[in-house]
Structure formats: C-alpha cells, structure tokens
Amino acid sequence: MKIAVLPGDGIGPEIIKEARKVLEVLQKEGLAITLEEAPLGGAAYDQYGSPYPEVTQKLAHEADAVLLGAVGGPAYDDLDRPLRPERGLLAIRKDLNLFANLRPAILYPELANASTLKSEVVSGLDIMIVRELTGDIYFGQPRGIRVNASGEREGFNTMLYAESEVRRIAHVAFGIAMKRNKKLCSVDKANVLETTEFWKEIMIDVAKEYPEVTLSHMYVDNAAMQLVRNPKQFDVMVTGNIFGDILSDEASMLTGSIGMLPSASLDANNKGLYEPSHGSAPDIAGKNLANPLATILSVAMMMRYSFNLEAVAQRIENAVKKVLADGLRTADIFEAGSTKVSCSEMGDAVVAAL
Amino acid sequence: MKIAVLPGDGIGPEIIKEARKVLEVLQKEGLAITLEEAPLGGAAYDQYGSPYPEVTQKLAHEADAVLLGAVGGPAYDDLDRPLRPERGLLAIRKDLNLFANLRPAILYPELANASTLKSEVVSGLDIMIVRELTGDIYFGQPRGIRVNASGEREGFNTMLYAESEVRRIAHVAFGIAMKRNKKLCSVDKANVLETTEFWKEIMIDVAKEYPEVTLSHMYVDNAAMQLVRNPKQFDVMVTGNIFGDILSDEASMLTGSIGMLPSASLDANNKGLYEPSHGSAPDIAGKNLANPLATILSVAMMMRYSFNLEAVAQRIENAVKKVLADGLRTADIFEAGSTKVSCSEMGDAVVAAL
Ligand SMILES: CC(C)[C@H](C(=O)O)[C@@H](O)C(=O)O
Ligand SMILES: CC(C)[C@H](C(=O)O)[C@@H](O)C(=O)O
C-alpha cells in the first residue's frame, strides 16, 4: 500500500514528521506500506509554480491514501487566486473525487477544561459530521465577477447538487450512522433554497434503504444554534459543502481542542485523504510547538477507512489517549499541572505508547 | 407616525399584545403614533390564502414602521412552497427593501447563567451583527430544480451581490461601528467564492470613507469558530444574507437567552421592520408562557432607528433591565431563586417599570 505524504505549509512539515514516526513503526513491524512525499499548496507553488503540480497529481493518483499536513500562509496572500495554496487543496479533493469528508468532534475527558462551554454541556461529546466535499457552491458553474445588464458589477456563484451527488453522500452518512447510534441529522435550508429542498427530498428517499436509522432534518441556522445550546443531541450530521465547512468548524471548536481533531476525505472506493482539522498556523511554524495529535489521529482514520485495519486504528487512538492520560500536553492544550512537551516530544511519546 | 402591527403565528399574538401595552403607554403620554393590525404568514394564509396578502402589503407601505411577532408553525408544513408562512416574511423584507438587518447579541448580567458558555467567555458580551437581508442566494436568479444536460435532476441556486447592494450595507455597518467601538469585522469566504471576494473588495473601498474604523476580514468558517472560542473579540460584524442567517443565530444562542433578543430590518430611509430574533414557538403558543421581552426590546429599536427617539428607546430598555433586576423571569429564562411570571405578567411589569 502506497501512502502519498504531503507536508504542505506552515506547521505542516513538523506535524507530518511526527505522524511519519507512527507510520514507520507500523512499517518496521511488517505492515506493507511505502511512503512517498510531494509538495502541495504554497510549498508546491514555491517549487513548481502551481499549488497542485503534476508531480503531486501523479503521486496522488498512484497512492492508496494521502496524508496531508496543512496548506496556506501569509506569504501567499498576494498571489493570484488560482495560484493560492487553498486552491491546491480544493484541486486535489476534486481530482481524487473525495466527496465524503468525515470530521469528528470529540471531547477528550482529559481536555474537558479546554472547552469554552460548560462541562455538563460538552462532557462526552462525540459527533461525526459528514460533509459533502466536491459539489455545492464550491464548484458550481457559472461563477465569477461580471458587469450585469444594468452596467453594474456583480459577484456571483452557483449552488448546485445533482441527484447522484446527494445519493452517494447520503449512503456514506447512513452507513456511518448504522455503525454508531443510528441517528442521522441532515442539515439544510429547505425553507429558502431549492438546492437543499432537493437535498432533503433525496435524503428522505435514501432513508428507505436504512429503516433502522432515524433521520431528522434541521435548518442550518438552527443547527448553528443547537450546536451551542445542546451539542450532545447530535450523533451523525450530514450536510453540503458550504454548510459543512461552517458547522464542522463550529463543532470542532466546541471541544476547545481543534489541535486534536483529525479528518478523512473519501472517494467511492475508500481511497482517502487524511488531514488534521486545524490549519497551517503560520505564527508557530518552525518552532516545534505544534500539536501533532490531530495528524497522528488522521493516520488512525486512514487505517480504519482506507486500509480496513480497525485494530491498528484503535491502537493508535489508544496510544494518544495514553499520552494524554500521562499528562503530556503541547502548548495549545497545556494547563497547570500537566507536562508541557514540544511537537517532536509528543510524537515520540505516542510512538513509545503504541 | 403609523405603526403596522403584524402579530403573525404561534406565540406571535401573545408577545405582540404585551409590546402593544408599551406602545399604548407612549401613546397616552402624547407620542403621536397610531397602531393598525394586519396578518402575515400562516394567519394571513388562513384568512386570505396568501402569506403576504394585499391588505398587509398596503398597510406595510403606508406605515412608518412595522412591528412583527413571528411566523410559521407545523400546521403550514404541507403547504406549497409559495404559500408557506416564511414566504410572507421573505416577501415583506423584499417588498419594503429592508436590506439592513441588525441583530444584537447581548448578554444580560442577570441572565449570565443561561449561557452554555463559561461565564468568563461571555460576560459583558455585546455584539451587533449587520446582515444584508434582500440579496444573496436568498433572492438570486436563476434557481430551481431541473433536469440537467446528462438527464439527471439537480437543485440549484444563485449567490449574487451587485456593487450597490454591498455598498449600502457597508455604509450601514460602518455607520454603526462609528457609534460603537469603531471596530468592524466583515465575514466572507473570499478564498472560495467570487461573490464574497467581490464583497470584500467593496468593503475595503467603502472603508476609505471611514478612516476611524478598523476593518478586519474573517472567513465564515473561522467566524463560526471564533464566536465559540472568544466571542468578545467582536464588536460589529457585517456579512451577507445566508452567512448572516447562520452566524446571527449562533451568536444569539451564545447568550443563552434568545427570548431576550430583538432585531431591526431597515430600508435606506430608516423605515424598518422590528421583530424578536426567536421564532413562533408553536409548542408553547396560546399558553401565556412566552417571553415578550425580545418583542418589547424590538419596540425600543423601533424608537431608536425609525423614530430617532433615543431617550424613549433607552427608557424601554431600562424598564426591561429593571424587571430583570427585580427577579422576574418567564419560563425560558427561569432559574431557582427568581420569580416565575407569565407572558402577560411580564408585559405588565415592564409597563409599570417604564
Ligand atoms: C481552505 C479552505 C478552502 C477549506 C474549505 O473551505 O473547504 C477549509 O476551510 C476546510 O474546511 O478544509
Ligand atoms: C424563516 C427564515 C426564512 C428566516 C431567514 O432565513 O431569513 C429566518 O431564519 C430569519 O433569520 O429571520
């Protein structure tokens, strides 16, 4: 099995280095994986003049799974839109057809204080957000900035979902709900937007194939509220690309430890791209301060979803729980009484706990 | 000055009745206002077969300001889309050109415990969200559900902002920032959507006319996170219709007391529609349990923005603060040690405290 490793920008290379340590242990133990690196985002622009150059495309297509650090940084802010780092991210998602983005929001009991929410509201929080990732207003055509019939400039984009796009993400979400508490909440704005009225109709249709799952529907504005009011009412949520972008970030911040949260973006055959939910944190890049746990937990997700190695996934997750229980904390999750460690010390500790 | 009073559905009539008591006191004291009622939403559909019938349109156009309760309820869920209650709300906003929606998120010190957030995170919270209300994907054409070139069904909508639409909401937001802490945060998704890249460009241009205001920009996904992480970093926020729908609901829920929060929707001449931020709460309708304070505070906003009567606005706001300080609470904000009152008792108490 070939893993494409894309360190990216900012803290990307540091956190990837620690995640590689975990992969290399598995490799030494006999897991048949090979690792190959390529640049994405700003790093790729610097080297090849494109945020998703051919060399990276080729590797990404050959690989069985992709591990990504993070992309972006102020150095690239003035680039033309098609050259910016985040374009590399959008391009690889689309190119590999990674339509199913899974973003867990889990509160680790050891880190309960990190949440800005009262502990009774978030203790035990464990939500899985399933976000459609290759459709919607992110990719809809037509789009642009134009002069309209009245001679005035206007910006415009197209929100769009075809039936097959909604069906396939629905099946992913129902499948995940089946493995969890059999509760699925589909988020839409069906009272205003035909796209999401259509989305809702398809969800209801696919639900017939999963009679054990209880499907509910919620407007996106209400969902943004309910995540704050009572997040534990949710188990699996499914929504479109733009609403999912917003709600998954909100949900992950409820835990107070976004540095802990992994993500998976899957195609129809469980080939996937795995990356931390957090960004490239340019302010702390190169200082060995970053938290590598979200990236390491992304490796666990890779073992689970792309390689169907549930036991290995759990072993990695348990190693992370152990270092937390041992009181080790990077700066972002440090609190009085715990032991502050660097990015590389945290990676070493996880390897030792494996 | 003529005020159109639209009780609407659910708890609408009850909360409007209490807000009317306040208006009637002002009237008796000599304020030259007349009040006239008309139906909107489900009530209007029941009576006239349309959620925004001609009689209501006529009154709304004649009036100097509109006071609305709330619209919607399960009784109308099976109606055809154009007949549903929320269509009445969207129609009156568009018909009166109410492009500037002001939604404060204020934490009342007496209700600090109602928030699900830790008190140090939200104490003193006072954010004003300025949401554009007559453009964006809410009204953009083309839209619908169609069969595409591949013979597949798809839902689609158009996000769209013309330059003049962004300019006028920018001026409202900068104007409000000038009267507050001179800090304005514009929320966009300029890294993905041309519409909001254009929005950002116009914001930067309008900023030149307000050199005293510090303008910042934030992506919508980050804004959804930052509202949870550290809401007090915000003073005035400005954003488009759909992002504003989501973020203003999230922000109001941070206070834990959405039953306390008013809103104003203004046109270019400060004619406005005033309504509570909460909905029609069909589950408690007709039980005299609702909290009328958001509606009463909406009357205060009406005095401030449409009638330029700042002293009267403050007098109403102070009366609300007084009843809270006296320990009076409707069911939604009740806690041990306070005095539980009904909707009408709360209205009477505010009148007594005026
Ligand atoms: C960087 C940006 C294009 C991206 C997105 O909006 O999808 C990011 O916010 C994410 O959620 O992965
Ligand atoms: C009822 C609905 C159409 C409306 C909106 O989306 O604008 C509501 O959510 C609001 O914010 O006033």
From TrEMBL, chains A, B:
UniProt xrefs under InterPro entries: IsoCit/isopropylmalate_DH_CS (IPR019818), IsoPropMal-DH-like_dom (IPR024084), Isopropylmalate_DH (IPR004429)
GO CC, one annotated term: cytosol
SUPFAM superfamilies for the chain: Isocitrate/Isopropylmalate dehydrogenase-like
Protein name according to UniProt: 3-isopropylmalate dehydrogenase
Organism encoding this protein: Iodobacter ciconiae
Residues the entry annotates as binding Mg(2+): 221, 245, 249
Domain of life: Bacteria
Annotated metabolic or biological route of this protein: Amino-acid biosynthesis; L-leucine biosynthesis; L-leucine from 3-methyl-2-oxobutanoate: step 3/4
Domain Isopropylmalate dehydrogenase-like: 2-350
Main subcellular localisation: cytoplasm
